[in-house]
């Protein structure tokens, strides 16, 4: 080993020891990120609130939802008698819950059967805005703290003051004939509605605009936990379906190196590995004899490619991809053979396809309804694929 290389290795070791010493002597910074994750004990996690649910609802079980509401509750829907085989309250607390219109419709259906929906968020899907007749705005600005209160005089003493993490959003429009105002927020001497109750079918929607009130930081301040208890008192004491899917995604992040970079020791080990690689490249950048490449003659790989693709689909069980392709090819067949527009698969389309193809209208309707259902479903299984394939083959051959 040359003298220069020894110097660089010594510098690298000293750097490594210095980083370890600094890392162990530096206190961990407070994470002020708004995760609303029920497993986080950080200021804006919901660990305390989640663990208090069993005390707030002593006769209820708490189930975590790791998929969309549509995927979860659709499994409990009975198509035979058009009812749900489970009851309870769906709860989501997050600034951006990312509820699509399909899941919003599922929540509307679930509520119509006598269940409660509680959403504490800043943003709602268009389906809920239109169906429940409300709208929100965040046009005004504020400074300092805000006052959260209830319209029910029974909860007069449960009002709280909040200083951190506030959002300047409020209910700008509500259906006054069907909506009950349950709470307000006061900013700069101006009072706005932030908590409402909307009946839907046999159930209710409870919509709240300040999810920060349920975080660890505010639950531990003074008697602020009473505010959360009063909000939850409007819900029935039944099974709690707690939505935690989006917060799990936030916890993991999107980077492929997210876990390594989240751990200080692994992060610095990764950085030192990169530095070592760079130094290795610098000291080994001398000109060397290149390896003589052996070029094999080209061969026909069409059959091998086909087998590889077939094995890939078989091993990975990518049912969604296969179902999507089956539907795409079938609709292309309809357009090419029967000259029908396949953009809107409604009752008129079913009637026209039945007339042009000469197929039984009921059979055609079942096939189209199955296609519409599978296109909306996020995770399909092998049974879905087999049923779709049989239905399409019957259409071709019958």
For this entry, give a set of tags.
398 residues, two-stranded antiparallel ribbon, 15 helices, alpha/beta, 45% helix, flat, Rossmann fold, 9-stranded mixed beta sheet, single chain
Which descriptor suits the 3D outline? flat
Quick check: average pLDDT?
Answer: 85
Return residue spans where pLDDT drops below 50 for at least 5 consecutive residues: none
Number of domains: 3
> From the 3D coordinates, which CATH architecture of the largest domain would you assign?
3-Layer(aba) Sandwich
Layout of helices and strands:
Blueprint: H1 3-25, H2 47-56, E1 62-65, H3 69-74, E2 77-78, E3 83-84, E4 89-93, H4 101-112, E5 116-120, H5 126-132, E6 135-137, E7 146-150, E8 160-162, E9 170-173, E10 180-187, E11 190-200, E12 203-208, H6 216-219, H7 225-232, E13 240-243, H8 245-252, H9 258-262, H10 264-283, H11 302-316, H12 319-338, H13 347-357, H14 361-376, H15 382-397
Parallel strand pairs: 1-13, 4-5, 4-13, 5-12
Antiparallel strand pairs: 2-3, 6-9, 7-8, 7-10, 10-11, 11-12
Helix pairs in contact: 1-10, 12-15, 13-14, 14-15
Give an overview in words.
The chain is α/β, with parallel strands linked by helices and 398 residues long. It folds into three domains: 3-29 and 257-278; 47-252, 3-Layer(aba) Sandwich (Rossmann fold), CATH 3.40.50; 317-397, no CATH class. Helices cover 45% and strands 16% of the residues. The chain contains 15 helices and 13 strands. The protein has helices at 3-25, 47-56, 69-74, 101-112, 126-132, 216-219, 225-232, 245-252, 258-262, 264-283, 302-316, 319-338, 347-357, 361-376, 382-397, and strands at residues 62-65, 77-78, 83-84, 89-93, 116-120, 135-137, 146-150, 160-162, 170-173, 180-187, 190-200, 203-208, 240-243. Strands 1-13-4-5-12-11-10-7-8 form a nine-stranded mixed sheet, with helices on one face. It has a two-stranded antiparallel ribbon with strand order 2-3. It has a two-stranded antiparallel sheet with strand order 6-9. α1 (3-25) runs antiparallel to α10 (264-283), α13 (347-357) packs across α14 and α14 runs antiparallel to α15. The longest helix has 23 residues, at 3-25. The radius of gyration is 29 Å and the shape is flat.
